[in-house]
Specification:
With 535 residues, the chain is low in regular secondary structure. It is 8% helix and 10% strand. The strands form seven sheets. Strands 14, 15, 16, 17 and 18 form a five-stranded mixed β-sheet that branches.
Length: 535
């Protein structure tokens, strides 16, 4: 073994003593002489690793030996070896707010220490502890838009942050700065109880076309239900509005008279000028005859005009300008005037002051007139139109049942099917020096009336003019509404028809109750008029 010289401890401060020791002995002697060294690059004394741990001030690094966490710079001693901090090491370290949670680790449960709301699963840190979120915790959390308000909490006050209107107590979240604001009637936004921008509700009324919730929102006093917009009331909109006493009738002189059982405020609202306890009665007016219900239809009493509608009456209807709810069958019909170009009716066949029967009117014109009077074009006794296929069933037809004096004759004026050439205005008549084929005022021939009561107050159901009825071959039969090209029956014959029905003669060419001529709904002629029924 190699020998080296060392300085003896005994020589320090006096005389150097030399001697020969081997290398192992020199090391041992040196350690013994100098004490434990925390920087000698040796693991000595109570160090847990080289120059660290134990009583050394230096902490041991990753993978160095350790006895406990105090020996490690990380504070973590795992199985005798220093380890790095982790979110599952059971120790509060790094940026954790509590053991293994908060900071860069997972959110802490309620009761754990927190630095701010982000450390907590509930996003609520109160007094440095995680807690359940609520609307009074003084913290903006969960879905709140501002502290303790908005989202699922009560609405926020003015100037508080918001995302939608419901976040605000004022129900108005300003779309520009996303802050709650007090609604006004001039802020350019639909808010508060407004039905449209700055109108409706407690603001001023809205103009036509604006959105409304009730009619009180509208300057027109009518909020159209299907569209929810302010609209001008009319007599054909299908709603009770304006001055109407019932739907599209009564009130203003421009609307129709109301029919039986409709609401009224006074006699002038009703078809028969009889308003009882704010309801139009079913009593026939003096201008109509009351017909008892046919046996198959108990309780279906009805009224029928005693006279054909005159030209002066029709002219009054035209001048009133009444607009009624148009039937789908009449969508094509844009004029009610018999003088309309193409109808071939001149001053000789129509005059606003004439007491002759109205002529040159189509089916829709006749329906319109009767509707505006609170009546109907004569049709089925039970209700509505009589099917074209049942024209021979007189008890179902209001017109035919009245003409036959309750099924007692084929001629209106005589019992027992007894024909007369002179009683009514047919082709054979030669009255008062006038020749045939001449139209007369309704009721001019006093004997052209029914032969039993109440039919003896009705005139001209045979001859004078053919009369439109609500007896049509339309959607009720075919399933298809063809409008103006549907075929409807005209009844009773005219001044140009012979009266007697002889063997082999076509009844449609006679002035009798059996007569019916089917015409296009949009047809008109110089010898076709009408009368109305009711109930």
């Amino acid at each position: 073994m190699r020998r080296v010289a060392i300085i003896s401890a005994a020589m320090i401060g006096s005389t150097l003593v030399s001697g020969c020791f081997d290398f192992v002995h020199r090391t041992t002697a040196t350690v013994a002489l100098s004490g434990v060294g925390c920087d000698d690059r040796l693991k000595t004394g109570d160090e847990t690793d080289v120059d660290c741990g134990g009583s050394c001030p230096a902490k041991c690094g990753f993978h160095a030996g350790c006895g406990d966490g105090d020996d490690c710079a990380s504070g973590i001693c795992l199985d005798g070896t220093c380890d790095v901090p982790g979110c599952g090491d059971g120790i509060k370290n790094n940026d954790e707010s509590d053991v293994d949670c908060g900071g860069s680790c997972g959110a802490c449960a309620n009761g754990k220490i927190c630095g701010d709301a982000s450390d907590c699963a509930t996003q609520t840190c109160i007094s440095a502890r995680c807690a359940d979120a609520n609307c009074a915790d003084g913290v903006m959390n969960t879905n709140e838009t501002d502290v303790d308000c908005g989202g699922g909490c009560p609405g926020c006050g003015v100037n508080k942050a918001c995302a939608v209107a419901t976040d605000c107590a004022s129900t108005f979240c300003h779309p520009t700065n996303h802050a709650c604001a007090a609604p006004t009637c001039s802020d350019g936004f639909k808010n508060g109880n407004e039905s449209d921008v700055d109108c409706g509700g407690s603001c001023s009324v809205c103009i036509n076309g604006k959105t409304c919730g009730t009619s009180a929102d509208c300057a027109s006093t009518f909020c159209h239900p299907p569209s929810g917009t302010c609209t001008v009331p009319s007599c054909s909109d299908g709603f009770k509005n304006g001055t109407e006493t019932d739907v599209d009738c009564g009130g203003s002189a421009t609307c129709s008279k109301c029919a039986r059982a409709k609401a009224c405020a006074g006699p002038t609202d009703c078809w028969n000028n009889q308003c009882l306890v704010n309801t139009c009665t079913g009593v026939c007016p003096s201008t109509m005859a009351a017909v008892a219900a046919p046996p198959p239809f108990p309780g279906k009493n009805y009224c029928i005009d005693k006279l054909e509608v005159s030209q002066v009456q029709y002219a009054s209807f035209l001048s009133a300008g009444i607009v009624f709810s148009q039937l789908p069958q009449c969508a094509w019909d844009t004029s009610r005037d018999p003088r309309t170009l193409g109808r071939g009716c001149s001053g000789s066949t129509y005059s606003s002051g004439s007491t002759n029967p109205i002529r040159c009117v189509d089916w829709c014109d006749a329906v319109a007139y009767c509707m505006t009077k609170g009546k109907r074009l004569c049709g089925s006794v039970p209700s509505g139109a009589t099917l074209f296929t049942t024209l021979g069933n007189g008890q179902d037809s209001q017109w035919y049942y009245a003409c036959t004096n309750a099924m007692n004759s084929a001629y209106f004026y005589n019992s027992g099917d007894l024909y007369s050439a002179s009683k009514c205005n047919g082709a054979e008549r030669v009255p008062m020096g006038l020749g045939p084929d001449t139209i007369l005022d309704p009721g001019a021939l006093v004997n052209c009336k029914g032969f039993i009561a109440p039919y003896d107050t009705i005139f001209d159901m045979n001859g004078n003019v053919h009369e439109w009825t609500d007896e049509c071959m339309d959607v009720a039969m075919t399933g298809v509404n063809t409008g103006g090209t549907d075929r409807c029956a005209t009844r009773g014959g005219s001044f140009g028809n012979p009266a007697e029905i002889t063997n082999g003669q076509n009844p449609s060419n006679t002035a009798s109750c059996e007569t019916f001529v089917d015409r296009l709904r949009n047809d008109y002629a110089h010898d076709v008029g009408f009368r109305c029924c009711a109930l």
